[in-house]
Amino acid sequence: MQVFRARMVASSAAQRGLATSALKDKLTEVVPKEQEKFKKLKAEYGSKSLGEVTVEQALGGARGVKCMIWETSLLDAEEGIRFRGRTIPDLQKELPPASGEKGGEPGPEALFWLLTTGECPTPEQATALTNELHERAKLPDHIEPMIRSFPKDMHPMTQLSTAVTALQTESVFAKEYTKGLNKTKYWEAAYEDIVNVIAKLPEIAALIYRCTYYDGKVAPYDKSLDYSANFCRMLGYSDPEFDELMRLYLVIHSDHEGGNASAHTTHLVGSTLSDPYLAIASGFNALAGPLHGLANQEVLRWILDLQAHFQKEGKPVNEETIREFAWDTLNAGRVIPGYGHAVLRKTDPRYTAQREFALKFMPDDDLFHIVSTIYKVMPDVLLEHGKTKNPWPNVDSHSGVLLQHYGFKEENFYTVLFAVSRAYGALAQLLLDRALGFPLERPKSITSDWIVKNVK
Ligand SMILES: CC(=O)SCCNC(=O)CCNC(=O)[C@H](O)C(C)(C)COP(=O)(O)OP(=O)(O)OC[C@H]1O[C@@H](n2cnc3c(N)ncnc32)[C@H](O)[C@@H]1OP(=O)(O)O
Ligand SMILES: O=C([O-])CC(=O)C(=O)O
């Protein structure tokens, strides 16, 4: 029966000119079960409370307010992120390695299969998705000249979100919707856009990188490689160790439950039935803020400033000088980038995963030593400062020095890598949003007068 239904959906998709794929076929089995699960959830739990909302929470950026469903990952304040119930070490054990070599890092393709279907793919399924992405990667003619015409001092994140917005000309969802798309088919049309945009991101990002910092030449697309290795080649990197770093990077930055600003923005914009191109471009704009994804750029800058400052003074970078520099930052009314978190209350396991990579591949790297020394002193500095609820490092605290080690020096570009990864997580959930028929998001706002009059 399931095979029959999959064939029916595949043939109706083909009739409407939509591509079929192993992942889409799998989702054709998964989606009706998920729809049934959610119908039951609503019937059984619909009237139950998820908790009270205080005035402090309304004033304080809705911290801790449970008002969104996000199936692909869940964040625990102490333990950190789990992707479909799996920690980062679990993913490294359970997902097939992207290089095919035992013990190698899984790639974002395998993760995307897991996030969307809830099941780990076989190596063959992960490869099928890699190939599907390769087949969908070609950019329409207007994108490359547009990127080449951007001013070199336009921030790479501005270039990225502009290019992805312009890519919206390709939206199957928008075209089908205009023709009159049945609600039950939303997810199929969204699938096309979601997989297409993920497929096209490496070339867009590589064009931005090569045009902004180099001669504008991008290595030819290589379909014989996995997504991450091909991305590295197009950026201009050919070290297999850097490929492994890119796989790790793209997996761990992908998803961090739904409330973070980039995921939430993608979800909110998508809830208006703006197509996935517009939704993810909006998410990228949220990621580009220094309190969110851009912090990784700020961290690197902070470390380089620290190094330059003490070099000029003829002092070594050690626990004492780092403490001094941290206090200067705090006393200037600035935040320490890479430390603190809206939800986490312990060291981010994404930080730990990157630290482990560094210990394995670059234990003697100078910048890695500085990051390790910062880790020793910063929690105590922040505790003494007495403001932040979480004195521990987040993901952004480590990523830049790993990239620097392999010669990837242009810190203003780092958030673009984060964005390529975040697309996998935010768009996996966006697909489920459309499959599960999630409605327009529209929480209630109130005025301060309303609080004074109504809250006892
Ligand atoms: C991928 C990511 O998005 S991970 C986060 C990346 N961002 C950063 O690393 C930037 C530095 N960190 C921060 O600014 C914050 O910790 C955030 C934005 C991540 C979380 O913000 P919140 O949930 O509001 O944190 P919290 O409740 O602990 O803030 C309380 C106070 O501590 C301050 N604080 C929090 N973190 C820091 C920090 N790293 N350095 C200095 N002060 C801090 C806040 O600015 C706030 O001060 P205020 O009362 O004067 O407004
Ligand atoms: O969870 C958050 O608010 C921020 C974060 O770490 C992420 O989005 O990766």
UniProtKB/TrEMBL annotation:
The active site is at residues 292, 341, 396. GO terms for molecular function: acyltransferase activity, acyl groups converted into alkyl on transfer. This is Citrate synthase. One of its GO terms (biological process) is carbohydrate metabolic process. The keyword Transferase applies. Belongs to the citrate synthase family. It comes from Hondaea fermentalgiana. Keywords: Transferase.
